[in-house]
């Protein structure tokens, strides 16, 4: 057996391929951004063909940099942006339209329509999810109803549905020439079409959302043999792991015990706590989701707090306002001031996710005076990420009745020491960054390694996790609570802007 495993990590803004050794060290990596398409306010799209081209590019690039071939890779895992929805033609391989990204809010009217019948939480017992623009089912319905001829083709079995994991595996394993049409339980749990207990597509949910059954992929575990790559530079490599990106980070952080939690700071922020082998249903606005299912073992479940806009707010300051020229400059600018100057930034660009679930909220900057400057705006943007994380932590603690003793963190924003220190200050508990920052890709590679027998069990994986840095609170508790109180006042002002 070779000594390398790999992961194709397809995210909201870029696609990456990483190769790891047996100890979880990164051997090589390649990354390529793809376009963010905004046809109308609230609409967010990706070009699936561009994503597939980017995937092939980064795979070849990372293999070349490492001096490796596909035969040197023991197993490949896939991590993907969840909920983003693609419909494509089984015979041609072409998508019927651009992919609808998880941030896209065009299905808001559908949410209202279904909620008027049975309330926002009518499907929560089966799916763990509230009605929201976030999930895949209504995005599929929009494509079926708005792209001419697609519903008829779907009912005839000529149109395939999938999140990005499904789309990539189908292409990698042959596409129109026998491509495997599968998804794993974590991604299926984000469609709002799967029953959390049976781990199967639910007939009643399909009917309620208007999604034809012939479109759907087969649901598999997160670590097993799906197929062999037949396309491009990975040809011959087995694909044996698949996880939604946030669940992949949970595995990469080796959070295999109930009560262990991680927060990933990327385009959005996603805090997941492992709740064990039985789903825990939230009373505080959190999502109940499948954490992972490793081969034939029982599934593990998680409570999740999904935050739509965190790193994307830094990108917005860069691209839309020109406040900075690179994302890394946000920390330097924020350190030019001692505090936020009374300025709060609520980034409800596409509504608010957990724990509020307010599709009608919109972003605001509040507390402005003549004293406020660019540094205060930059600091308020970073602090918004930490405040939103505390919102989720308090909800998780309320649901589980167990205090969170520490928070493991990962994602691009954890390189920002100012943010991590403020996060520890606002949470008043340790914030821990692991030695390997690429936990999403590593988790997908770990799942693939388990699926291929490269690793024996999760104990093998725990041996490789280690701490890089820990931040502890340095702020007075009264000051921390007062900042958070003002944050919650600002959040309340953002509610119901869209009538």
Outline the fold blueprint.
Blueprint: E1 4-10, E2 14-21, E3 26-33, E4 45-46, H1 48-66, E5 73-80, E6 86-89, E7 99-100, H2 108-118, H3 124-127, H4 136-146, H5 150-155, E8 159-162, H6 164-172, E9 182-184, H7 185-188, E10 194-195, E11 200-201, H8 203-209, E12 218-220, E13 223-228, E14 238-244, H9 245-252, E15 261-265, E16 269-276, E17 287-292, E18 300-307, H10 311-319, H11 329-334, E19 344-346, E20 364-366, H12 374-400, E21 407-410, H13 417-427, E22 431-434, H14 439-451, H15 458-462, E23 467-471, H16 477-494
Parallel strand pairs: 1-5, 5-14, 9-12, 15-21, 21-22
Antiparallel strand pairs: 1-2, 2-3, 4-7, 6-8, 10-11, 13-14, 15-16, 16-18, 17-18, 19-20, 22-23
Structure description:
This protein is of the alpha+beta class. It contains 16 helices and 23 strands. It has helices at 48-66, 108-118, 124-127, 136-146, 150-155, 164-172, 185-188, 203-209, 245-252, 311-319, 329-334, 374-400, 417-427, 439-451, 458-462, 477-494; strands at residues 4-10, 14-21, 26-33, 45-46, 73-80, 86-89, 99-100, 159-162, 182-184, 194-195, 200-201, 218-220, 223-228, 238-244, 261-265, 269-276, 287-292, 300-307, 344-346, 364-366, 407-410, 431-434, 467-471. The strands form 7 sheets. The protein has a 7-stranded mixed sheet. Helix 9 packs across helix 14, helix 10 runs antiparallel to helix 12 (374-400) and helix 12 (374-400) crosses helix 13 (417-427). The chain is globular and about 65 Å long. The termini are far apart. The model has no long low-confidence stretch (mean pLDDT 93).
